[in-house]
Design goal:
Chain B: It is found in: Membrane. Chain B: This is Germination protein, Ger(X)C family. The complex is a heterotrimer of chains A (480), B (414) and C (363). With 480 residues, chain A is of the alpha+beta class. Chain A has 3 domains: 103 residues, no CATH class; 115 residues, no CATH class; 159 residues, no CATH class. Chain A has 16 helices and 12 strands. In chain A, the strands form 3 sheets. Chain A has a 5-stranded antiparallel sheet, with helices on both faces. The radius of gyration of chain A is 29 Å and the shape is elongated. Chain A starts with 11 loop residues before the first helix and ends in a 39-residue tail after the last strand. In chain A, 41% of the residues are buried. Chain B is α/β, with parallel strands linked by helices and 414 residues long. Chain B has 2 domains: 231 residues, no CATH class; 152 residues, 2-Layer Sandwich (GMP Synthetase, Chain A, domain 3). The chains are: A alpha+beta (480), B alpha/beta (414), C mainly alpha (363).
Chain lengths: 480, 414, 363
Amino acid sequence: MKNKETLISRDLSKNQEYIETQYSHGVNMDFVSRPLTAATGRYHLFFYSTTVDTKQLSNHVISPILSSKKDVPLPALLAVPGIESLKDMKKVEDALSSGYVVIFQEGCREAYAAKIPDLKHRAIEKAENEKTVKGPKEAFTESLDTNISIIRKRLPSKDTIVENVEIGARPAMSVSLVYIRDLANPEVLDNIRKRLKSISVDTVCNIEILEQFIEERPLSLFPTMLYSERPDNASNYIAEGFIVLMMDNSSSCLIAPATIWSFFHSPEDRYLRVIFGNFSRFIRASAYLITLFVSAVYIAITNFHSQLIPIDLLLAIAASRERVPVPVFIEVLIMEFAFELIREAGIRIPSPLGPTIGIVGALILGQAAVQANIVSPIVVILVALSGLSSFTAANYSINHTLRISRFIFICASSLFGFMSLLGAIMIWTVYLVSIKSFGVSYMSPATPSTKSTHDTFFRILLKKERWRPVFLKPQDKDKQ
Amino acid sequence: MRKLLVMIVCIPMIILLSGCTDRKEIEEQAFVVAVGVDKTDKPNIFRFTFQIANPEVGSSTISPSPNESPQELVSVLGADFLSATNAANSSVAKEITLEQVRVVIISSKLAKSNEFIHLMQTVPSTVELRLNAQLVVSKEKAADFLQQNKPKMETRPHKYYQYMLDRAKETGIIPDAPLSRFYYITEGDADLFIAPLATVKPEDKQEYKSEDKYTAGDIPLKGENKTQFMGSALFKEGKMIDELTGEETRISVMLDPTLSQQDFIANYKDPLKPDYKIAARFKAEEPKITVDYRPNGKTTIYADINFRLDVYSIPSTVNYISDDKKRELLRNNLERQLKQMTEKFIEVTQKKYKGEPFYWSLHIRRHFLTIQDYEKADWSKKIYPNAEIKMNFRLTSLEFGKVLRQSDLGRVKD
Amino acid sequence: MVLVKRPLKTRELLTMAWFMVGLKSADTTPAMLAGHTKNAVWLVPIASLLFLLPSFLLLMHLLKKHKNYNLVELIQHLLGSKIGTLLCLLIFLSAFIVIVLDLRNYVEQINYLYFPNASTTFIFTIFLLVCFITASKGLESIGSISWMFMPFILFTIIFILWLGQSNAVWNRIFPIFGSGLGVILTEGWNKSSLFLEMFLLTIGYQAFREPKFFRRGIYLGSGLAFFFITFFYLTYAIVFDYNTIENVAFPYQETTEIVTLGHFFTNVSTFFMVGWLICSFLRFSVFLYLLVWTFGAIFKVKPFESYLLPFCFLILTLGSIAPSFVTNELSVREVVLEYISPIFLLFPFLLWVMSLLRGRRER
């Protein structure tokens, strides 16, 4: 930071020496410092060989300079789309770091940056984590420009704004806020800008880190921003008046404010016809309930309220538990933990080994544990059911919430059966409704109720969706 | 932070304090499916027999131990249900719970004694014993009944009771008698209560009667399981006073609007050839009872019953099917048969029992504004025994099954 | 940052009022009333409603006329600060005594029916802890959570009523007046303070987006509550006969014990306990919050939420005084209700008279 005010010298060799020291030329293997002697004078080029397009460099930068006969200014000479004049060394450094080619000319107090970067990133691929059968398949990739171009393609309007906010210092990264000018609530926008500016750490590399910096309650069990890798999802939310945060190097975006429903909905629900979409919502809602409560209810019923179980089932459970050496609570806990192990291992394991771990896990933990009388088969069924159900979660962020909450409920129900379980559910739910995400109640629009699309558990006919979510206080409420 | 502190203090407190006082693992409990109660020589001491289901038998999840029986019987002395379970625990290792009890079997000797109602008074305050358990009266000792009742098709004891009682209730030969009904009727003190009658010791003199004129024990049945559910025990003011046959039970169930009855097959006299019988499926609708109450004169009770008959067989081969006149005759005759049968039984209840098991006291209540007036009018002592009862049976539909014409047996014999 | 200020609307108040008033249908209240009226127990809430309606409507009318006041502020405005505070304290104290007695009552039910081996104090503590945490999240959260659990509770209610019908004998409602019309009316008058929550709720008159929503919510909620209370009492009367109903301490739980769901599910009572327990948690959270709110409004302390914890301790201590459930229920609760009933029946008239005088003076 010390060379902020260093100006560009008329002496080319001075500039060359300065840049070469700054960029450790010779140590930094991909830093190229190349002198050029043309008919019109001496030039010097600096660039990272790994971040510029070398083909363009030779065709559109070097050869025009070498072949020029007259002393025309560089911007007129070079056939590249972006060229910028740089007045001081700070700008030069920024340009170099961004992957531009910087050209110095002998006797000139200006340098020029030719924008021919070739930063490598993945091509646009299919969405991996939020799959749909019906609906667009493309996903965000790790290049901000590509991502914004996908969004622009979906929202071609002069009102779609991509606003950059700089955060951090080593290096400064920019966060792009994407919103629709005449929809997004300025209060929320200001709040987000304020939160972004108040980040005091040096580096925030990607959106996943950023999320934790601008969240209201970092210790909370519930995510308050929606993390999505689907451009269609993002642009749908933008069109409703939400604000999307994007960064370079992240193949996802953050959508704020988020409500509990946004974690429950899948974009496919809207692509499917209303009955089909609601059916899949219904399945998913049941799955959420199953994954949260099935093990806890099993413990509560078997340990405290056995009169609720029909006698045939009761005798079946009693028979299968006759030789199990641990109480139900421990039994369920062991199996739930084992299931979490399989899941964690499944994510971390190198893919060639994947099938093996599946077989070993299922075989050892299921079959063998039952045969060895460590657990009863009913518990295996329940744990498999609750584990399977947790995979229906439409969003990865809520997945952890469900899994951790499940353990809370399991522990609660082992204390006092339904009474402590319901107490825990009460506290859990009251916490849920008290959360606010950027000033929006987490359960809106169900409660507190506002005009909206009424898209909560079930959605209505698209034709009948009259209002934008008013809990966001959008500038234009009427959708039709 | 403050909230976190509260949590940190409270949660361990809960765990420590609870000590898991009410937690019971399922396999540590012994589930009683049937309780039998017998009278002993000492007053107000009863013999309780608990039939405990063995979960390991009949369950496919693990291979059962070959020598275990599907049930275990424990018999102890006690003053009430709960203290008896405690006593029984001296022999059964697991904790005995009554929450799955399906049947309470009372020996008829106990049911006829004065102690019975005192025993029953202890039940509602027991949290464990559910009031929807069925009351069954056994002719012999309840302990013997439980011991000798060995169903062949159902391994698990509760299944047997469930199927047996449900099926028998559908046909109306035994009534539906949950414990709760016993309390309503006994405490209401206006009607008689009927409970299923059962036995495992068939009587020696066995003769054929029309299919529902039996009571438990005299059905000429042959088979390995000697258990019979048939007829009912009649309770007046919490004390058993008589036995009703299957037919009488059917009439009671039919006349009681609060009890439901499915269809059943019965025989009726052939009106033209009285030596033969007609077999038909009988289905009665809910009876309509109206009471014409005269505080000073004679009260009249009207009972209208609509019923349906599907005739299955006419062994006499009289052509009731296509001959309109004969069919009309059959129709009138059947209505008269039922009416006579019912009126005979009602007369018995009026004269002999001085009370009715049909829960008809409900229908006179609307003539009173307050309970005091109603109790003063005294249904069971003053109104019913002196009332005039007008039965009206109406056959709404008479069907003859899948046959269009009876074949002429006379021609076949030629 | 809050985008929508005062977000509560009709639906939240509707559910709060409904559960708060309506849970009377599933506790020991019917048993207490049936001791006097036998099978006519279902007429008592109707009688109470008839007595309460004029004074309640008058109170709502006054609140509407004098805008910008809640219950306590209205009383203090109309009666002057000294007498007003005295009356408010009287209301507060009666509500406080009622919550103490009711809580003990519920805890005993849970203890006796579901956890017979646990100590009462311990269940009391857990119950209060849950209510305290729920209440400390504020009115907005309590309102929202009531609305969230509404579908489940409604399902439970309809299910139990439907199942109850299969065991019900409609003729049991006769003789229609039970122990007599006079007894019903006396009981209706004496026990009208059973529904004091309706009056207590008006402390939140200003807390909703518009007073219009408040009025709509409280009328609808109380209406639903009265409807279901009557319907439940009617169900008890026709499921248990008049001789049995006075002996049954917990008619809701007994009803759930008797009903069966086909052959397979013969004991479904615990299922109905779930809805009941959620409803009780909700009711006492709202009650606790309103109580402390009233306290805060009388003594002008803000934020009053910090008084929740001391009040919980006080309730726990006082609630544990009664030596047994029967004493608590039959001697104390009944007498207390009879003493405080006139307050709620009469104070709106006092306010109305003062309001008239004040209006005349100003003219």
